[in-house]
Amino acid sequence: MTADPANPEHPERAAVAALADDFLTRLREWIAIPSIGADPAHHGDVAGSAHWLADALRADGWPEVAVWDEGPALPAVHACWPSADPAAPTVLVYAHHDVQPVDPLEQWEHPPFEGVVVGEELFGRGASDDKGQVAMHLLAVQAHLRATGATAPAVTLKLFVEGEEESGSPHLGELLDRHADDLACDLVVFTDTPMYSRDAPTVNTGQRGVLGAEVFFTGGTSDVHSGRAGGGVPNPATAIARLVAALHDADGRVLLPGFYADVVEPTPLERADYAALPFDEAEWLSANAGGARAGTGEAGWSTLERVWVRPTAEVNGIQGGYTGPGLKTIVPASASVKLSFRLVPDQQPAKVMAALREFVAANTPEGVEAEVVVRGDGVPAYAADVTHPATLAVHEAMSASFDQPVRYSRTGGSGPAGVLHDRLGVPVVYFGATLPDDRIHAPNERVVLPVLLRGAEAAARLWRLLPERLS
Ligand SMILES: [Zn+2]
């Protein structure tokens, strides 16, 4: 290895520092392309963003670069840089280059597509989610080569940057199948999640899955007079309320049959790490939980555990009968509830859906007809194995780069890591260096540059460490 004499312990850090100015110029240029996937008027920009990335990769020396724009998926970018060692492992980095819409525009303090730098922060849509993290990987590969003095990476690197993540990755499975050879790998590095905080850097190890459904209860064919028929016929709104009330027991556990049968609990090490993270519940409630007045949930688990590693059933909306001004004395003909479930490994969305149907059937009173409408196939949960050598290597690379104790964390939201794992048949580890308060999907999205640069340093280390750690 070519060690920088000024920084012999941290060749990757020195390399990142030398490349940091170019990195920032480049990221600002990319942020200026408004690749908003949700808006058809911006689909040309999504394509422009893909081609910008492809050009940047070619300029960096990536020997194989392609834009996949054959449809129906919005353009994705694929690149490969083979290691000089044919026995080296192949690592696929997954990320995305599409961004969320910017409304309400008037709440932005800086134009969302200019990449304005204020102190340590770079503002702009995509600065954190996820262009900043993709650019971090480009920088990391440059730094890896500079630090090692090699002309090819120590692992065979593949990059897969999709253009539809913010739209729920509707064609991801199709892309993975169609390009199975291009994407074949030994390990996926999933880069679309944050660390816990700047003061408490973490390796994320999991995301929950999600499943949505709607339940409709119908009594008669029309609303009826509550005096003439009330008391003599079933009330679908009451029935929906009873169904919702039956979803949880007094300890906050979900009562769908078999709901917990496949749940894998976090390891004692993970629980100890969660407990050791700085967590101020009052601050969390006001900053992250919409000003909720108390943290509540399933008995026996901390707030972080409840939102990271425990499955849930939530009522998203409920309706039925008369909701206009004043009173209307009726027995409504119908009522409905929208439900979503956050899932954890190894719960399968299809199995949970079957359990919901069983639960609804058991809680439908006589004289009421039930219909369960499923919203899509759901997204499976995924958790990286904290004993896997790749996870340990990520932890080691992060620890060396952040100069602080690095712990494990998870996120409560959902993403396609489980789909990548299932289709590619390889382990997935998470690698991210953004922060939960980057205001992604919201006005004034930003990324903290020194944190992102440490992330690049960590990724550069990871590529150096992996061949040995995986051997
Ligand atoms: Zn993202």
Automatic annotation (TrEMBL):
Pfam families attached to this UniProt entry: M20_dimer, Peptidase_M20
Keyword annotations from UniProtKB, A to Z: Hydrolase, Metal-binding, Protease
GO biological process: proteolysis
Regions crossing the membrane: none
Keyword presence, Coiled coil: no
Signal peptide region: none
Gene Ontology terms for molecular function: metal ion binding; peptidase activity
Location of the Peptidase M20 dimerisation domain: 205-367
InterPro entries found in the cross-reference section: Cyt/Met_Dipeptidase, Peptidase_M20, Peptidase_M20_dimer
Top-rank lineage group of the source organism: Bacteria
Protein's name according to its UniProt entry: Acetylornithine deacetylase/succinyl-diaminopimelate desuccinylase-like protein
Biological source species: Umezawaea tangerina
